[in-house]
Amino acid sequence: MSLTKTDQKKLKTFVDILEKDVQKTNVDALSWAFKKLKMNGVAKEIKAGRNIRGNTIYGLEHGLHSKAGPRYDPTTKEFFPQTKKMRVNEHRFIDLTNELLKGAGEKPVDKAKLIKHLREGDRKFEKDVKKR
Question: At 71, which helix (H) or strand (E)?
């Protein structure tokens, strides 16, 4: 039994609606993740659907890495490098974020390039701190 043209059209409309619903769910999950990182501005922009990929990259660089990156204690003037556990969690978060971006219909973030950029910044930060 084949579908009539009308039934095919209805089926296509239904599939499109389901795909948009899945995309919205992924965008909401991405927004929720950044809200948990206390990046409320990024979360609001993502939830509104404005520049989802760009806001995600910004959130990864400035929100996630500031919480899971190296630390500096200005009172004791000690530098604490990023621990292995923090690094593993950072990689996992980026992987999960990429899955959500794919589900939202966006291009995933280049993980290797992002990590390389973050590590370069860490080395520069460490040099600057040790000069003080």
Answer: strand 71-73
Please state, in angstroms and as integers, the Cα–Cα distance from residue 66 to each residue in 24, 112, 121, following that order.
Answer: 28, 18, 11
Residue indicated by tokens 């993740």: 33
CA–CA distance, 40 with 33 (Å, rounded to integer): 10
| Total residue count of the chain as it appears in this document | 132
pLDDT at 13: 93
Domains contained in the chain, number: 1
| 82 occurs within a structural domain | yes
Under 8 Å between Cβ of 100 and 87: no
Tell whether 23 is covered by a domain: yes
Instruction: Indicate the helix (H) or strand (E) that contains 30.
Output: helix 5-36
Tell me which residues of the chain have a pLDDT lower than 70: 1, 132
Is there a domain that residue 2 lies in? no
Within-domain flag for 32:
yes
Token representation of residue 117: 């950029």
- Would the pTM of this model clear 0.85, i.e. be above it? no
